[in-house]
């Protein structure tokens, strides 16, 4: 049975087609192209952990300056989540390991430092407010 490809409009045999990320069947060249695009997006998303680690440090440093009661808890919690998440991603995710390369170890160190800095901010703010 032949069908028309959603990607390029070419006729192809349905049994020889490939699945697109949305589950539809497309021709082999379009299927390979879509798979390569998806892989590139995943790699780019995994590689953003390096930037996220530095963002956690910046948020943790900002949490020392915040005086508002709601934001007082929000900033350190965000920094802990982002720092811990980036460190965990750099350690455990295979795609992130490949995408980060030499930046993996600095990502882990900076992410953990952001978590510790946010914890220090929480401890100091709670002890000052008490």
Explain how this protein is built.
The chain has 130 residues and is mainly alpha-helical. The chain has two domains: 2-43, no CATH class; 48-129. The chain contains five helices and four strands. It has helices at residues 28-47, 49-63, 69-92, 94-100, 104-129; strands spanning 2-4, 11-13, 18-19, 25-26. The chain has a two-stranded antiparallel sheet. Strand 3 (18-19) and strand 4 form a beta hairpin. Helix 3 (69-92) crosses helix 4 (94-100) and helix 3 runs antiparallel to helix 5 (104-129). The longest helix has 26 residues, at 104-129. It is elongated, with a radius of gyration of 22 Å. The model has no long low-confidence stretch (mean pLDDT 85).
Q: Give the SSE order as H and E letters.
A: EEEEHHHHH
What's the rounded overall pLDDT mean?
85
> How much strand?
5-15%
What is the molecular shape? Answer: elongated
SSE class? mainly alpha
First-residue to last-residue Cα separation: 75 Å
Radius of gyration: 22 Å
Oligomer: single chain
Q: Main attributes?
A:
single chain, mainly alpha, 2 domains, two-stranded antiparallel ribbon, 130 residues, 8% strand, 5 helices
Q: TL;DR of this structure?
A:
By secondary structure, the chain is mainly alpha-helical.
Write the layout of secondary structure elements.
Elements lengths: L1 E3 L6 E3 L4 E2 L5 E2 L1 H20 L1 H15 L5 H24 L1 H7 L3 H26 L1
Antiparallel strand pairs: 1-2, 3-4
